[in-house]
Amino acid sequence: MTDFDCSIPTKVFFGKNKIEKIPKEIKKYSSRILFVYGQGSIKRNGIYQKIVNLLTDSGIEYKELSGIKPNPRIVSVRQGVALCRVHSLDFILAVGGGSVIDCAKAVAAGVYYENDPWDFFTKKGDIYKALPIGTVLTLSATGSEMNGFAVISNEQTKEKLPAGSDILRPLFSVLDPTYTFSVSKEQTAAGVVDIYSHILEQYFSKEDDTYLQDRLSEGLMKTCIHYAPIVINEPDNYQARAQLMWASSLALNGILSYGKTGDWSTHYIEHSISAVTDLTHGIGLALLIPYWLEYVMDDKRLVKYVNYAENVFNIKEGSADKKARAAIDKTREFFSSLSMPSRLREVGVNENDLGAMADKTTRFGPVGAFLELDTNDVYQILKSAY
Amino acid sequence: MTDFDCSIPTKVFFGKNKIEKIPKEIKKYSSRILFVYGQGSIKRNGIYQKIVNLLTDSGIEYKELSGIKPNPRIVSVRQGVALCRVHSLDFILAVGGGSVIDCAKAVAAGVYYENDPWDFFTKKGDIYKALPIGTVLTLSATGSEMNGFAVISNEQTKEKLPAGSDILRPLFSVLDPTYTFSVSKEQTAAGVVDIYSHILEQYFSKEDDTYLQDRLSEGLMKTCIHYAPIVINEPDNYQARAQLMWASSLALNGILSYGKTGDWSTHYIEHSISAVTDLTHGIGLALLIPYWLEYVMDDKRLVKYVNYAENVFNIKEGSADKKARAAIDKTREFFSSLSMPSRLREVGVNENDLGAMADKTTRFGPVGAFLELDTNDVYQILKSAY
């Protein structure tokens, strides 16, 4: 277990109609806000109008930044920064999934930065101050609603890169499970994979004596496995949606990683793929994780696989090696039960691009902590997944 | 799963020498503080001098409130309130275990309350504002370092009562596992029972669909069981001390209870005992928990016991009833492996006092949520534990 500084200040308002708490929370900080949302689903399901009414009734003025796409683009961030500056907006309300929230975070930091906010992602500039943010979550997946990370894509450079700071943690997030009832089966499934991948990336760590953190992670992975088929088959099942929504926040708010070092290489590799193909993040992760698990497995790391096998999948028979392989198979089966593809060739990736993707993944150096991967390692994983 | 509002703002500085962060954190709020500690162990192990040096070097003035006892007394709280008022102190630094921190919390709220702070505990007065608090933890047990609860005893009325508010959550807590190396075997064991009891009180809840919360609780219970023998036999084992220290905070910072209703009847019963006998809290809990588990078990509640048996103790054979009873036996064994007594008669409780204890436990009405207990129920549990 390593040293750490823990700070999880985001207030969560969890439950039906908790959206009504928004005006009071916002007014602690502002009466002129940027209202960020995606491609219009919140207009169809009524959330947009509800928020507009709440803001108007409370005398909160707002400007809109809409049309944020999955894999949110740096051009939207630049637009948001300009809107905040021109209209003197000093609070950001993000309503949507992780893409919308990530975009809002980049805007929040960009407003205080004199150069292009893309610098945060290429490590040319530091996030040192940010506007306060509140969120209303409509998709259980990224955990962005309770953490300080943002991932932004640049269409020009074909890059998708992360940045983060504790000052980007939202001040509050409204988690109303009914807002996820209308999420499609496909997006729901990809969201579950995203949650699961966050847990797994933190679970497979190199430190000893992370018993507590590992047991918590196993509990959350089992939660994903338990509720995934329920939300797929019964999209209006409040309790199942609620359990997965809270799982998405807990999976990446720090609770699982304080005291250890996450791996995250699968995420870096996936970013290099979806920067080119605009693939849904969860689908890319489902594709890669089993191949990554196979590639990094060796005698030294086997004990983690055995824990994973025994405690998540209840695999108790056979040698350590057999248990580990059975657990990888079970992981594959779980993703495949969520209708995830299992080969990169199925999702429009060109085999000739794999080398460039490996180069891009390791542009800032090796990735991963459970096992450090260089460009060739990444290429091998991509090739096996092709 | 129920609705909830989550707020866990306490910053945690975890690791060796993290105490050095204190002056910078305090100076965000104050330069005149109340320094609260216990009966002198921090003078013997050097923490006191280290803090005095840190405060002095940073120009932070302090007044001391010392001698806080286990089962902290309302008289100490009143003393602290007076010190803050007379010397215009506006920040409280609590250095010790849960008793010292609880006392600091009551002082923090008492300063802003015009009447006697005992009112908070008898529900005659509300906590509405409090001085900011920082803590340095020296005993892994109560979780007070990351939550808003305080339990205070009144020697005159022979009462021990809880009060709480989110505004009493410490702003920061320093968790340096090396500070617990010198805790005696007995106090270490009682601390582990305290942690375990907090998890168990939240685990046994009546709501359905708390899969996520239950799996997290099981993970933390297993952590206690795994590391308890190690810290007893190797008091200087940093990793084991670290795991239990973090477990104590996570057990009661809200993560296990958001979305469900804790039971807490065993705590209420124990408070009625230790108000009279000054018994160590963890010992009282170890005594009561198995009898409570036996008393409230019935067909309706059996499924929770089966989960407990299977997931915490790996009991997979036999009927539901058999598994449940085996899990209660295992709980008893665990406490007994920590040298906990198993009968109230062994710890100086007078059989004639049981009725009065039951009355006091239910003075504000029935206790418990997994199963509501009236005065007679409590009396039956006390009698079976005698």
Question: What report would you give on this structure?
Answer:
The structure is a homodimer. Chain A has about 375 residues and is an alpha/beta fold. Chain A folds into two domains: about 10-180, 3-Layer(aba) Sandwich (Rossmann fold); about 185-385, Dehydroquinate synthase-like - alpha domain (Dehydroquinate synthase-like, alpha domain, Up-down Bundle). Chain A is built from 15 helices and eight strands. The first copy, chain A, has helices at about 20-25, 40-45, 45-55, 75-85, 100-110, 120, 185-205, 210-235, 240-250, 265-275, 280-295, 300-315, 320-335, 355-360, 375-385; strands spanning about 5-15, 30-35, 60-65, 90-95, 135, 150-155, 160-165, 170-175. In chain A, strands 1-8-5-4-2-3 form a six-stranded parallel β-sheet, with helices on both faces. Chain A has a two-stranded antiparallel ribbon with strand order 6-7. In chain A, α7 runs parallel beside α9 (about 240-250), α8 (about 210-235) runs antiparallel to α9 and α11 packs across α15 (about 375-385). Chain A is globular, with a radius of gyration of 20 Å. The model of chain A has no long low-confidence stretch (mean pLDDT about 95). The interface between A and B is large, with 39 and 39 residues. β1 (about 5-15) of chain A pairs antiparallel with β1 of chain B.
